[in-house]
């Protein structure tokens, strides 16, 4: 039986990957990284926040209030941060592409030689590399795309959407941050129940990332669990110290 976290292309009876036009995941759509990061950050942030205020001895009502404040503030911050980050990145790519397009228009021979030199360094015969570079240069759009990929490491047609990144981060942060609040929302008042539920959420979220990275699911899950609980332990101790001392 095939491990559900093993990619199809690695299954014993799977067809060759080259025969499957979709054997690679979409790594440029702009949603996966902010979604994963948002969910993880929401879980860790609110688990740590709840552990801190819970360790300080506040009431369940105050824990819920604090947790939702952290959820809303964190989700908005994550969404705005992702939008700004991706938009800035896209603007920088657009600027570099415009500069590259000007160079292709002004110095097509030099740009073709530059492209050929890159291919020659990778082992392509010099004559063939130059012939292909010159042929590509006759199509301005194809030339720009190849130069962007070779020199900048980007595909002009596959830039991530800042809106997709923002909404992915906002929604996934909110979902992650809600998990440790669930016990309190159904009437529980024990901090340890919230930490257990949050810990399960951390493990599951970490395990799910293995589906995209081809890592062992339990290793990814345990790693995220340990990191999240370490953050919760630190804030719990700080909250307990402040609660005992009566500061504030």
Automatic annotation (TrEMBL):
<dbReference type="InterPro" id="IPR008217">
    <property type="entry name" value="Ccc1_fam"/>
</dbReference>
<keyword id="KW-1133">Transmembrane helix</keyword>
<dbReference type="Pfam" id="PF01988">
    <property type="entry name" value="VIT1"/>
</dbReference>
<feature type="transmembrane region" description="Helical">
    <location>
        <begin position="191"/>
        <end position="213"/>
    </location>
</feature>
<feature type="region of interest" description="Disordered">
    <location>
        <begin position="1"/>
        <end position="26"/>
    </location>
</feature>
<feature type="transmembrane region" description="Helical">
    <location>
        <begin position="163"/>
        <end position="185"/>
    </location>
</feature>
<keyword id="KW-0472">Membrane</keyword>
<keyword id="KW-0812">Transmembrane</keyword>
<feature type="transmembrane region" description="Helical">
    <location>
        <begin position="225"/>
        <end position="247"/>
    </location>
</feature>
<protein>
    <submittedName>
        <fullName>VIT1/CCC1 transporter family protein</fullName>
    </submittedName>
</protein>
């Amino acid at each position: 039986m095939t491990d559900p976290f093993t990619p199809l292309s690695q299954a014993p009876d799977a067809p060759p990957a080259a025969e499957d036009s979709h054997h690679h995941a979409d790594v440029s759509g702009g949603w996966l990284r902010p979604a994963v990061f948002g969910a993880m950050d929401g879980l860790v942030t609110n688990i740590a926040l709840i552990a801190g205020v819970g360790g300080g001895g506040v009431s369940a009502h105050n824990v819920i209030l604090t947790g939702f404040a952290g959820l809303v503030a964190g989700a908005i911050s994550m969404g705005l941060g992702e939008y700004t980050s991706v938009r800035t990145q896209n603007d920088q790519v657009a600027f570099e592409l415009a500069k590259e397009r000007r160079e292709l228009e002004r110095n097509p021979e030099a740009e073709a030689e530059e492209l050929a030199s890159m291919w020659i360094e990778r082992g392509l015969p010099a004559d063939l590399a130059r012939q292909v570079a010159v042929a590509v240069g006759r199509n301005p759009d194809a030339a720009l795309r190849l130069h962007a990929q070779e020199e900048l490491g980007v595909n002009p047609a596959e830039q991530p959407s800042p809106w997709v990144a923002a909404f992915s981060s906002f929604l996934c942060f909110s979902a992650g941050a809600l998990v440790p609040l669930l016990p309190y929302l159904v009437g529980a008042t024990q901090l340890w129940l919230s930490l257990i539920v949050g810990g399960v959420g951390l493990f599951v979220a970490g395990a799910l990332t293995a589906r995209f990275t081809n890592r062992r699911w339990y290793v990814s899950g345990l790693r995220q669990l340990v990191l999240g609980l370490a953050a919760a332990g630190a804030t719990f101790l700080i909250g307990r110290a402040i609660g005992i001392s009566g500061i504030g």
